[in-house]
Amino acid sequence: xxxxxxxxxxxxxxxxxxxxxxxxxxxxxxxxxxxxxxxxxxxxxxxxxxxxxxxxxxxxxxxxxxxxxxxxxxxxxxxxxxxxxxxxxxxxxxxxxxxxxxxxxxxxxxxxxx
Length: 114
Description:
It is a single chain. Strands 1-3-2 form a three-stranded antiparallel beta sheet, with helices on both faces. The protein has one domain (12-113). The protein is built from five helices and three strands, in the order H-H-H-E-H-H-E-E. It is elongated and about 60 Å long. The protein is of the alpha+beta class.
């Protein structure tokens, strides 16, 4: 029997509901899920192909952080005494970019690990 893939557009609200359905909604804040939805939507549009929603996979690939210090801790970046906030952020971003991508949204940061 052949499998047929049917792609169904979802709203940000439906996207958040899928995380609740899989009991993964506590992995992200409300704003974090909204930011992740926007990121995936932009990526799908730039690639000109639909994205297949896999909540479990997303939870393995994307981690939400509330502070840059939390990211630094996970990625082994220790703040030097002579670094201001901007230099510290650049160092953290540089470390993350070796294995993924990060962005800031209202209320936190999201890290995609490749």
